[in-house]
User: What shape does this take?
Amino acid sequence: MQPADSQPLADKARDLSFIDRLINDPQEALTSDESLSVLASYAGGLVAAVAVFIIGRWVARFVTGMIVRASRRAKIDETLLGFLQNVVYLMLLIVVCIASLGCMGVDTTSLSAILAAAGFAVGMALQRSLGNIASGVMLVIFKPFQVGDYVELGATSGTVVELQMFSTILLTPDNVRLVVPNGNITGATISNYSAESRRRIDLTIGCGYNDDLRAVRSFLEETVAADTRILSDPAPVVAVAELGDSSVNFIVRPWVPSADYWPVKFDLTEQIKLGFDEHGFTIPYPSQDVFIHRPEAA
Assistant: This one.
């Protein structure tokens, strides 16, 4: 009586013998009865593998479609949705291919190990790129900024034009297009100047020590109140901030709609300078008093 594992070994030897004959004499190998039986044994696995691949691919598309529809109902961003769709379908298709190869008698254990090792190697090689993708997903989910916002990302600032999976596109005020890797964005401080509907203008205005502080303060308050773009709530602040080395410094802090920030700041600065000239107020320059001591001749 033959051992239990002798039959699989015999089958493997028969398969190897058939392959050798197929290489050396294809015509004879394909016409012999033994060869036909070997082909018949492979035919069943091949049909099963094709069936598994076709059905599995349909299932992968169906499951991916269900996930996409559920994600749309959850109002997930379309950029993230497209990326998620591709990743899910690719992963399911890999599983289907492995199952299909298993129906043909291929040892999928070693194949899975090879795929895992290849995936690890690719992941290490694309570590920075994958980090940018992960950062892009985080930006899409948490939305610290949107397209059209004026932002400062570390040392870079500009208007957001497009948010991609690997990078974010900014347009500077002088119309320079900047491509910022998403990994650099999530690792730095994000300042979004368009997120809120209103902003505060901070001006420091200095006047001379010989000027009438009450008159200067009254003029600054009138100048702020004359601009209809400045909000009344919160109320503007005009106050003496410090007694500097060369000037008495006022702070002028009005609130404006975010869209009017720069126009109001430019106009307000100009009006204050013109008003100082008309009222005779001084804007002192830093100065020093030099005392010269001359000893009396003996």
In short: The mean pLDDT is 80.
